[in-house]
């Protein structure tokens, strides 16, 4: 009987450790993708403010990052992967469909903008609408820093 309990306890401990490692892995993955969003946005943010010359290739590159990462992020927020050092709010899992929908919208908007932005004028008209979804998500689903 003691052997069974010891085996069960070892199995339960291993399972719990695996769950913690898997959780921290998705957190690390999503944080890396979010940081890539930030790196892609910095130069185009400068273009929007007029401090950096317009560069269509940089804009297209940022939009590609947005579309690719937005699609990749949806499965990286499984139930129970909040808390700890993450900035993810519980509202992500309380309103999961809305949260996932914002990533879907962001990917679709970025893809559409990639085709529609051809010059500085179209960039300044279209790009703010694409990144507005970022703000919506940050306002509702991210801890304020």
From TrEMBL:
<feature type="binding site" description="covalent">
    <location>
        <position position="137"/>
    </location>
    <ligand>
        <name>heme c</name>
    </ligand>
</feature>
<feature type="signal peptide">
    <location>
        <begin position="1"/>
        <end position="22"/>
    </location>
</feature>
<dbReference type="InterPro" id="IPR012127">
    <property type="entry name" value="Cyt_c_prime"/>
</dbReference>
<feature type="binding site" description="axial binding residue">
    <location>
        <position position="138"/>
    </location>
    <ligand>
        <name>heme c</name>
    </ligand>
</feature>
<dbReference type="Pfam" id="PF01322">
    <property type="entry name" value="Cytochrom_C_2"/>
</dbReference>
<dbReference type="InterPro" id="IPR010980">
    <property type="entry name" value="Cyt_c/b562"/>
</dbReference>
<protein>
    <submittedName>
        <fullName>Cytochrome c556</fullName>
    </submittedName>
</protein>
<keyword id="KW-0479">Metal-binding</keyword>
<dbReference type="GO" id="GO:0022900">
    <property type="term" value="P:electron transport chain"/>
</dbReference>
<keyword id="KW-0732">Signal</keyword>
<keyword id="KW-0349">Heme</keyword>
<keyword id="KW-0813">Transport</keyword>
<keyword id="KW-0249">Electron transport</keyword>
<dbReference type="GO" id="GO:0005506">
    <property type="term" value="F:iron ion binding"/>
</dbReference>
<dbReference type="InterPro" id="IPR002321">
    <property type="entry name" value="Cyt_c_II"/>
</dbReference>
<dbReference type="GO" id="GO:0042597">
    <property type="term" value="C:periplasmic space"/>
</dbReference>
<dbReference type="GO" id="GO:0020037">
    <property type="term" value="F:heme binding"/>
</dbReference>
<keyword id="KW-0408">Iron</keyword>
<dbReference type="GO" id="GO:0009055">
    <property type="term" value="F:electron transfer activity"/>
</dbReference>
<feature type="binding site" description="covalent">
    <location>
        <position position="134"/>
    </location>
    <ligand>
        <name>heme c</name>
    </ligand>
</feature>
